[in-house]
């Protein structure tokens, strides 16, 4: 199952996505023109678009190993993220320049706390 999963995907604000693309994670499929990133733009990107791209990266595509998502964007689709239970892709919530990281909201940490009976 993990053999084909070689890509990192990102759903992030412009600064985060640009930085990660400059670091080399960007990939555009030559046959389908599918990208492994989504640039979130406040007042332009709808929650429906975020949910659609999340489903694309987590359900439809089998080449994504890790999904990085800014935590403030993850909050917009929190129910989807909290209900995602597959081992791949791993979903990691990351801070952005304008929004600090809050460990109490992180879905991975919530699952770990629940596992250890701390929730």
Automatic annotation (TrEMBL):
<keyword id="KW-0472">Membrane</keyword>
<dbReference type="InterPro" id="IPR036906">
    <property type="entry name" value="ATPase_V1_fsu_sf"/>
</dbReference>
<dbReference type="GO" id="GO:0000329">
    <property type="term" value="C:fungal-type vacuole membrane"/>
</dbReference>
<keyword id="KW-0375">Hydrogen ion transport</keyword>
<dbReference type="InterPro" id="IPR005772">
    <property type="entry name" value="ATPase_V1-cplx_fsu_euk"/>
</dbReference>
<comment type="function">
    <text>Subunit of the V1 complex of vacuolar(H+)-ATPase (V-ATPase), a multisubunit enzyme composed of a peripheral complex (V1) that hydrolyzes ATP and a membrane integral complex (V0) that translocates protons. V-ATPase is responsible for acidifying and maintaining the pH of intracellular compartments.</text>
</comment>
<keyword id="KW-0926">Vacuole</keyword>
<comment type="subunit">
    <text>V-ATPase is a heteromultimeric enzyme composed of a peripheral catalytic V1 complex (components A to H) attached to an integral membrane V0 proton pore complex (components: a, c, c', c'', d, e, f and VOA1).</text>
</comment>
<dbReference type="GO" id="GO:0000221">
    <property type="term" value="C:vacuolar proton-transporting V-type ATPase, V1 domain"/>
</dbReference>
<keyword id="KW-0813">Transport</keyword>
<dbReference type="GO" id="GO:0046961">
    <property type="term" value="F:proton-transporting ATPase activity, rotational mechanism"/>
</dbReference>
<protein>
    <recommendedName>
        <fullName>V-type proton ATPase subunit F</fullName>
    </recommendedName>
</protein>
<keyword id="KW-0406">Ion transport</keyword>
<dbReference type="Pfam" id="PF01990">
    <property type="entry name" value="ATP-synt_F"/>
</dbReference>
<comment type="similarity">
    <text>Belongs to the V-ATPase F subunit family.</text>
</comment>
<dbReference type="InterPro" id="IPR008218">
    <property type="entry name" value="ATPase_V1-cplx_f_g_su"/>
</dbReference>
<comment type="subunit">
    <text>V-ATPase is a heteromultimeric enzyme made up of two complexes: the ATP-hydrolytic V1 complex and the proton translocation V0 complex.</text>
</comment>
């Amino acid at each position: 199952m993990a053999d084909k999963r070689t890509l990192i995907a990102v759903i992030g604000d412009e600064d985060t996505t640009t930085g990660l693309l400059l670091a080399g994670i960007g990939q555009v499929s030559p046959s389908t023109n599918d990208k492994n990133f989504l640039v979130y733009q406040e007042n332009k990107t709808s929650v429906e678009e975020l949910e659609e791209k999340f489903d694309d990266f987590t359900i439809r595509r089998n080449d994504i190993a890790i999904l990085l998502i800014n935590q403030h964007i993850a909050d917009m689709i929190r129910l989807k993220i909290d209900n995602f239970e597959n081992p791949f892709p791993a979903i990691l919530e990351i801070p952005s320049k304008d929004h600090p990281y809050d460990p109490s909201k992180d879905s991975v940490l919530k699952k770990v706390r629940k596992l250890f009976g701390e929730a």
